[in-house]
Design goal:
mainly alpha; elongated
Amino acid sequence: MKYNKQTMIDGLKRSIEKMEKEIEEYSKPCDRRVGQGRTAHREFLKKKLKKMKAQLKELEDE
């Protein structure tokens, strides 16, 4: 199955928006017992978000 370039761009934009909201949610204060896990997951999401933004920029520049 072949995907249209614009479809890929739109999908990445939606994923980026969703991930930014999730990062914001994980940035809120929480119970100390779950804090380290939330911090680790938030940092993982930030790295993934950075890669997705680079991929989006690459697709838009083509």
